[in-house]
Specification:
Length: 306
């Protein structure tokens, strides 16, 4: 017998976390769900293509749906905890949850993206994309694209959760790693972290050339609140104090409209918000891994007769 689909893991994960007011390790939730679903030893040993246990993968997707619904969170790395809304939902919906409600949890929140502060304004290159409605008439290629987008969206949420949990010092190192993968600096040693007390608003310095004649200054803010105009003005002042021409301001949150307007009114400042940051991390494989899928397609030229 195959492992139940991920939607069948939603209620077991919800019920288990409801008994853990302080949250629990994800691995404990995996095992609790497997026990509630009466998985056999054979089912527990089943693996997906990446080598992960199928039941753990499906438990993870079940938790992803609870997170998108606003009912759970990753309190810290590898640790799951119901939100106040999740606790209330579990209390208001005694077991078993009706099938149609489980289906709503499974597919009703698939389009929920990264949460941003209400006063955060979109950057110029952020264009909201409305996903195609999944239907039985979607081609395999369409479904593959939709699945890839869903995987990216889920990874983006996990990345941002983890960025918010690292120390400010570690966040500054991660930011410099991302910039290096983007092509800044001839080597990683050309990117120097200088953050700390007395950093004068500068967290990192990038040398574009070996002599350090051309530099880019970096400010990294591991924030949940939006970055406003005063922070951008302070950064601009710090750049002026260094006689710098270019600077990058990176945050895990977003920027207010006034902050974005200020950045546009001066030269040399680039803004990177949390959404752009996690997508850069995925595109350049910083803090993430990827796997190659071999998709067969007919080579028609091979069958042509000369």
């Amino acid at each position: 017998m195959s492992v139940p689909t991920y939607d069948q893991f939603i209620e077991p994960i919800l019920r288990f976390l409801a008994t853990k007011p302080d949250g629990a390790p994800a691995r404990d939730a995996h095992e609790a769900a497997a026990k509630m679903l009466h998985l056999s030893a054979e089912q527990r040993e089943e693996l997906i293509a990446s080598g992960q246990a199928t039941y753990k993968n499906r438990a993870g997707w079940a938790h992803d749906r609870l997170k998108r619904a606003g009912f759970s969170s990753s309190a810290k790395r590898g640790y799951w905890k119901l939100t106040d809304a999740g606790v209330a939902y579990a209390k208001d919906h005694p077991a078993p949850i009706p099938t149609d409600e489980v289906e709503h949890l499974a597919i009703g929140y698939m389009n929920v993206k990264l949460k941003v502060a209400p006063d955060a304004a979109p950057l110029d290159d952020e264009r909201p994309v409305e996903p195609d409605i999944t239907s039985a008439t979607a081609s395999p290629d369409d479904r593959l694209e939709q699945a890839l987008q869903e995987l990216r969206d889920a990874t983006a949420v996990d990345l941002l959760d983890n960025l918010l949990q690292v120390s400010p010092n570690r966040f500054e190192v991660i930011v410099l790693d991302v910039l290096h993968r983007l092509g800044y600096g001839a080597s990683r040693n050309d990117l120097q972290r200088v953050g700390g007390s007395g950093d004068a608003g500068i967290d990192g310095i990038i040398s574009h050339d070996k002599l350090g004649l051309e530099k880019v200054y970096v400010q990294a803010k591991r924030w949940q609140n939006t970055v406003g105009r005063p922070e951008l003005q302070a950064f601009y002042g710090a750049l002026a104090g260094q006689k710098a021409k270019r600077g990058v301001f990176i945050t895990t949150s977003g920027f207010t409209a006034h902050a974005i307007d200020f950045a546009k009114s001066v030269e040399g400042i680039v803004l990177v918000n949390g959404t752009r940051l996690v997508h850069l991390m995925m595109d350049h494989e910083v803090g993430v891994t990827s796997r190659l899928l071999r998709l067969p397609a007919l080579d028609r030229d091979y069958f042509d007769e000369e």
